[in-house]
Write a structure and sequence with these properties.
The complex is a heterotrimer of chains A (about 160), B (about 800) and C (about 290).
Chain A (H helix, E strand, L loop, with lengths): L1 E6 L2 E6 L6 H8 L18 E4 L2 E4 L12 E3 L13 H9 L8 H14 L5 H7 L11 H18 L8
Helix pairs in contact in A: 2-5
Chain B lengths: L18 H5 L15 E7 L5 E7 L1 H4 L4 E6 H7 L21 E2 L5 E7 L2 H8 L3 E6 L6 H5 L14 E9 L2 H7 L2 E9 L11 E7 L4 E6 L6 H9 L6 E4 L14 H14 L3 E4 L2 H7 L7 E9 L5 E13 L24 E10 L13 H19 L3 H8 L8 E2 L5 E2 L4 H12 L1 H13 L3 E13 L5 H5 L10 E7 L5 E4 L9 H13 L7 E3 L17 H28 L6 E4 L2 E4 L5 E2 L1 H10 L13 E6 L19 E13 L6 E11 L6 H21 L29 E6 L21 H13 L8 E2 L3 H18 L1
Parallel strand pairs in B: 1-12, 8-29, 10-11, 14-15, 20-21, 27-28
Antiparallel strand pairs in B: 1-5, 2-4, 2-6, 3-5, 7-15, 8-13, 9-10, 9-12, 13-14, 16-17, 18-26, 19-20, 19-25, 22-23, 23-24, 26-27
Chain C lengths: L6 E3 L4 H10 L3 E4 L5 H6 L7 E4 L9 E4 L2 E5 L4 H5 L2 H6 L1 H6 L6 H6 L2 H7 L5 H9 L2 E6 L2 E6 H4 E3 L2 E2 L6 E8 L5 E9 L9 E9 L5 E9 L6 E2 L1 H7 L6 H12 L12 H23 L5
Parallel strand pairs in C: 1-3, 2-3
Antiparallel strand pairs in C: 4-5, 5-10, 6-7, 6-10, 8-9, 11-12, 12-13, 13-14
Classes of the chains: A alpha+beta (about 160), B alpha+beta (about 800), C alpha+beta (about 290).
């Protein structure tokens, strides 16, 4: 089937079998390798992408179902080649990862959280990433990264000369 | 230890350089590597725990468009050699696909090759296999009985290994001790279960006679094993090591998977890839961990001093052996834990059953052993009515006793256990923690404190190989590093293995930068392929801080010495008259000076200025032997296992709603001493991740087989990995006792946390239910089983009262 | 883990959907796909055709109608979770929705999908049974409604006739002034399917006497069940802990519980009683304006 998807702001036309997951389509058809297959049955969350800004498991969605939505992958979060977003930078600052396999999904999930909640509590951070399994870190430095990013974003968004200290 | 007076980069919280590519989604994992014309493999699995393969009819599968081949075990066995066995058990033959007989449910019987993975799965459903079902055995104790059905009839029994070691006067010590107690604990079969399954892409180039391999691998001597199995010279197998590995923690060994695609690529003349799907991975990736029954007796006096221990460890390795029986050997090097136990009898028994094969798992058998040892300590304390911490203090090896030789022949490098314990108790405010437990108890909850003190042997040597297999005389397990300085003065360092999240690029850059006094961020790290690499034994056995760190340190010093020779030659001064600083060299009198670029230029362009007999260019490499290694075991099985011994001390508080039985970790504190820390972020992450993994092993994760031998926890809906909800905030208390055996005083930390967490959690739960007069001795501790035991105990006490 | 091949159609109307279903017994509806897709991936389900109803306007949305809140089958769980009508009128559903799967699965998973899949431990079916919801189906034969009690038959088995499409669920609104709810579940990990769960909704008069009560238990057996005997016994009481315990114990004996790897049948029975009592207690406290 032909399907036209909007990925990272760009409209892309491709041909897929109906049974092809959005995950496989992103990776095989568009060479966007940042979404990773972990379990292919919707539990581990390594394949998370944003669909209209909300985290969704791309292994549980067929590419043919994905037209008409704004799909954001990790590649769409990077401001420019070699440049990191505030959240990505915060993950580097706290070393919120080890092997990196679950990391793009974690970063996207954090991005969606901070879009709707600029100052999440620890519990809210923990809840937001509870659908993303990380096998390396025990989550501690990931939670720290998201809290750090929230803090930095709130400072960056504070009015000039505002009370940021 | 060659001390560096003042550390610039080591032990500072510098960023981990690998992270940049990962946060951007630009890691390069095996599934990201695409080769033109690649064919895809799906596997046909045995539905039976044991069955003779009567016939395989692939005609319907082969008739499907896009299907290229159906490989059977018979064809593969004719074209390849069996996979390596660690023990001397030649009749326990292992091929990547079952030959003649399937030995566990899920075992791969045929491999289907097609244009896409989906198509290969379609075709796999059409391969018709007729089986004759055979008797099977699942239970280790049953497998031990002489009349049990042998998994490998040619071997004659299910016993792969049954060796009893006696180190010291065990019988005498037992006879002389006023007290002894015995117990059994069981470590359930779980594993590290990385989020990336194992994957491999192989491509045979007939014009260069070269097998190119990209794999999600963490395996010592991987390319050699592949070459041997597929009957190629080792220099015709080129493993690309610039592949990011999505987690491993021991299990990504991938030999059988690689042999399948290597054979197929040669057979079909196309690149062939196998990326295990989750079901293939869980059922038949051959990556399960220890599945072990411990029977332990200890002899002790009224003060709680344990004099002697007898331990039998019976491990159910599953259907094939490989390296997994060695996981009974590695703990020999820390068989007494951090305690002054004077004599030990250790019986290591390994049996085959009709379960999936085991592989190396984080700690290589140490975490289960630590669980058994720590249970013994708690039980002795309980029997004597002693405080569990005091009990440990009395038995600990004291700081001034290091280096300390344990009965099994290993020398512990260094440690200061009493101080770590004191720091942790101070941090947790011990009396307040006990009050908190008692407050929870007063509220009607079951509450308990868990304590675990244990060692992480590190610096991964392979002494367990000659220990358990007399035909194996390996005494080195080296690693290496090479440094090249180019004409522009920029530094490139090569490391010779893949990494699976341990931050080896950061490690090597930090150490080289430290020695050369050059900003590590300016140093490039590269990973050559296996054919252009120096020897490495991969990041197993918590070894890379020690081994890659050591190799990098010595290579950098070699380079520095060359620079000093060049400068000395210019100044006409001996080495002791020179001062190296920040890459430049000055005469001690301060009058003359050569900058880094001056020296680089001489080395690269001005041979006429070089000292005689000095090679041009600026390069240094070092192959580093494991410190304290190099010695074969004694005939009675004493051996120096690993060089270094990190220490961890866990204190945790668990609360259990008595009606529901669900343990909740209310507080988690760990004291950790791994000597000199090279990168604090990395060590912290390893420790937190290890604890999370330990929580899984203690409470959630298990590969369960039903009575028919079918694995019933094959998806992530039933094999439960801890999520962010299940892992509490962990407080780490640091201590540093440098190792005298390593270049910077560093020890390993790749297994930290995991080695003690299960023991601590089990201890906390047992402390919580002790007032009911019950205990649990099997991991994982399931909510329902715990609750059922609590309910039974309460019912009993209400009847008696 | 790739699904067997299937055709994919996305009809523009419910009518067309029913025609597609009528034409092919092996066609299956897909909405959010959060339960169906894993079954497809493992090839446990092998439909010839997937009929995608997620975007059908007729099946989306939440409205109030004749004493009930009507939720379109294709309404996403995340949308229901944040909806003001649910918060105001269906406190029990509002309470359980955060326990359904994970945030990312709620972003795709639908209210109707959870009901149609009928997992015995799923939260939305439990609320449907507890509150006595009406489930509306449509097929070429017309519109049909059935009670949640009739709808759930067994694990992943429902009374949906061949060719029918679940269109909406009508959850009754309690009009009493003082309504309180309670919900508890126990699972190995917070977001897993529950070993046992219990939901309760109570209404109190100004004197604090119970005027209305509904108690449901999920996960224990092959489908969610309502404790009608206990509920009836509690009406007219002050819902003291003793009242609750006695009432729940009346029904617990009849509860059929199952045993599996994760929990024994005994455990499920014991804990069902405990959680049911706690849920009613919480419902009472929240109706009284006490925190729960």
């Amino acid at each position: 089937m032909k399907v036209e998807l909007t990925v990272n702001g760009e409209s892309r036309l491709t041909e897929v079998e109906p049974r092809k997951s959005l995950l496989d389509c992103l990776r095989d058809n568009f060479n966007l390798n940042g979404a990773h297959a972990g379990c292919e049955h919707g539990v581990c969350g390594a394949c998370t992408v944003l669909v209209d800004g909300q985290p969704v498991r791309s292994c549980l969605m067929f590419a043919v179902q994905a037209d008409g939505y704004a799909i954001t992958t990790i590649e769409g979060l990077t401001p420019a080649p070699g440049e990191l977003s505030v959240i990505q930078d915060a993950f580097c600052e706290t070393h919120g990862m080890q092997c990196g396999y679950c990391t793009p999904a974690m970063v996207l999930t954090a991005h969606a959280l901070l879009q709707r909640n600029a100052a999440p509590t620890r519990e809210e951070i923990v809840e937001s990433i509870s659908g993303n399994i990380c096998r390396c870190t025990g989550y501690g430095q990931i939670v720290e990264a998201i809290a750090l990013a929230a803090d930095r974003l709130s400072r960056a968004n504070a009015p000039q000369g505002g009370a940021v200290r | 230890m060659s001390a560096i007076a003042k550390l610039r980069y080591v032990s500072t919280p510098r960023r981990v350089r690998e992270d940049r590519r990962f946060v951007a989604g630009h890691g390069r994992y095996v599934a990201d590597i695409k080769a033109e014309g690649t064919l895809h493999v799906a596997l046909v699995a045995s539905p039976h725990a044991a069955a003779r393969i009567v016939s395989i009819d692939a005609s319907a599968a082969l008739a499907m468009p896009g299907v290229h081949h159906v490989l059977t075990g018979e064809e593969l066995a004719a074209g390849t050699d069996p996979l390596m066995n660690g023990l001397d058990t030649p009749e326990v033959r292992r091929y990547p696909l079952a030959v003649g007989q399937a030995r566990y449910a899920g075992e791969w019987v045929a491999a289907v090759v097609a244009d896409s993975r989906a198509l290969a799965e379609d075709a796999a459903e059409r391969v018709r296999i007729s089986y004759e079902v055979l008797p099977y055995v699942l239970d280790a104790e049953r497998a031990l009985e002489p009349d049990s059905t042998p998994v490998h009839p040619g071997h004659g029994s299910n016993v792969l290994l049954d060796r009893t070691f006696v180190w010291g006067e065990v019988d005498k010590h037992f006879a002389e001790s006023p007290y002894e107690l015995s117990f059994r604990v069981i470590w359930g079969r779980s594993s590290t279960v990385p989020i990336e399954t194992f994957g491999v892409l192989a491509s045979w180039d007939p014009w260069r006679n070269m097998l190119e391999v990209w794999a999600s691998i963490q395996m010592p001597k991987y390319s050699d094993q592949i070459a041997r199995a597929v009957r190629l010279p080792a220099n015709a197998v080129r493993v690309h090591q610039d592949v990011d590995v999505g987690g491993s923690y021991g299990v990504k060994r991938g030999i059988k998977q690689t042999v399948i695609v290597a054979y197929l690529s040669r057979r079909l003349g196309r690149p062939v890839r196998l990326i295990e799907d989750r079901l293939e991975n869980m059922r038949a990736g051959d990556a399960h961990g220890p599945d072990r029954i411990f029977d332990v007796s200890v002899a002790f006096n009224a003060e709680g001093i344990i004099r002697s221990m007898k331990m039998r460890a019976l491990d159910n390795v599953g259907a094939y052996a490989g390296r997994s029986p060695f996981q009974l050997g590695k703990p020999v090097g820390a068989i007494v834990g951090p305690y002054q136990i004077q004599s030990v009898q250790y019986r290591a028994v390994s049996v085959t059953t009709n379960k999936a094969a085991q592989e190396a798992v984080r700690g290589f058998g140490q975490a289960p052993t630590n669980y058994a040892i720590e249970t013994a300590i708690d039980k002795v304390a309980e029997k004597l009515g002693l405080d569990r911490i005091e009990m440990r203090r009395r038995n600990f090896i004291r700081k001034e006793q290091f280096p300390y030789l344990i009965p099994s022949g290993s020398t512990y490098d260094s440690g200061d256990y009493h101080t770590v314990v004191a720091k942790v108790l101070d941090h947790v405010q011990w009396p307040a923690l006990e009050q908190e437990r008692d407050r929870l108890r007063a509220k009607g909850l079951l509450a308990g404190i868990g304590i675990a003190a244990c060692l992480e042997p590190s610096g991964g040597n392979s002494s367990f190989e000659p220990l358990l297999n007399p035909k194996n005389t390996t005494t080195t397990w080296m690693d290496s590093c090479r440094i090249n300085v180019d004409l522009l003065g920029d530094i490139t360092v090569t490391i010779h293995t893949t990494s699976s999240g341990q931050g080896h690029e950061t490690l090597a850059a930090t150490v080289v930068g430290e020695v050369l006094e050059i900003d590590p961020d300016k140093i490039r790290i590269m990973r050559p392929d296996s054919l252009t690499s120096l020897p490495s034994n991969s990041p197993v056995g918590s070894r890379m801080a020690i081994m890659l760190g050591g190799a990098a340190f010595h290579a950098a010093h070699k380079l520095k010495r060359k620079l000093l020779r060049i400068a000395g030659h210019q100044f006409g001064l001996a080495g002791d008259q020179l001062v190296y600083a920040g890459g430049g060299i000055a005469a001690r009198d301060g009058k003359r000076k050569l900058s880094w670029m001056d020296l680089v230029l001489i080395a690269h362009r001005h041979i006429h200025m070089m000292p005689p007999d000095t090679e041009p260019g600026l390069e240094a490499s070092h192959i580093y032997q494991v410190p304290t290694g190099g010695i074969l075991p004694t005939p009675d099985g004493r051996v120096q296992m690993y060089p270094c011994h990190s220490f961890e001390f866990h204190v945790i508080l668990v609360a259990i709603d008595p009606d529901l039985g669900k343990p909740e970790i209310r507080r988690y504190v760990i004291g950790h001493d791994c000597g000199t820390v090279i990168n604090p972020h990395i060590v912290k992450g390893m420790t937190l991740g290890g604890i999370a993994h330990g929580i899984g092993a203690a409470l959630l994760e298990e590969f369960v087989y039903d009575e028919q031998g079918q694995m019933i926890t094959q998806s992530f809906m039933d094999y439960l990995l801890p999520s962010s909800h299940e892992v509490p905030k962990v407080e780490i208390v640091h201590h540093c006792t440098p190792s005298p055996f390593t270049v910077l005083g560093q020890k390993g930390s790749g297994e930290s946390g995991y080695l003690g967490a299960p023991a601590a959690i089990s201890g906390a739960i047992n402390d919580a239910i002790r007032p009911l007069g019950i205990s649990v001795g099997k991991l994982p501790i399931r909510i329902s089983a715990l609750s059922d035991a609590v309910a039974a105990a309460r019912a009993k006490s209400s009847v008696t009262s | 883990m790739k699904p067997a091949p299937f055709e994919y159609v996305r009809p523009d109307s419910l009518e067309e959907t029913c025609a597609l279903l009528a034409a092919d017994d092996d066609a299956r509806i897909i909405a959010g796909g959060q339960t169906l897709v894993p079954m497809l991936a493992m090839r446990l389900a092998r439909p010839t055709r997937l009929v995608d109803i997620l975007r059908l306007r007729e099946l989306n949305g939440i409205r109030e109608d004749g004493g009930a809140i009507v939720i379109g089958a294709a309404t996403r769980q995340a949308d229901a979770e944040g909806h003001s009508l649910v918060a105001a009128r269906l406190p029990l559903l509002a309470k359980v929705l955060p326990w359904v799967g994970h945030p990312p699965t709620r972003n795709r998973g639908t209210v109707g999908g959870s009901i149609a899949h009928a997992d015995p431990s799923a939260e939305i079916p439990l609320v449907s049974v507890t509150l006595g919801a009406e489930i509306v189906l449509r097929s070429e034969a017309g519109v049909e409604a059935m009670s949640a009690d009739e709808f759930f038959i067994g694990p992943m088995v429902t009374a949906i006739p061949m060719g029918a499409c679940l269109t909406e669920v009508r959850l009754p609104v309690w009009t009493a002034k003082r309504v309180g709810v309670g919900f508890h579940e126990i699972s190995a990990r917070r977001s897993d399917f529950a070993f046992v769960s219990a939901a309760a909704q109570v209404a109190l008069d100004t004197a604090g006497t119970c005027t209305q009560c509904a108690i449901g238990v999920g996960g224990a057996g092959d489908r969610p069940v309502r404790f009608d005997g206990a509920s009836a016994a509690l009406v007219g009481t002050k819902l003291s802990n003793k009242d609750i315990e006695d009432a729940v114990n009346m029904d617990i004996g009849q509860l059929e519980t199952m045993s599996d790897l994760h929990a024994s049948a005994d455990y499920r029975r014991r804990v069902a009683a405990v959680l049911a009592c706690r849920a009613v207690g919480d419902a009472r406290d929240s109706a009284l304006g006490l925190s729960s």
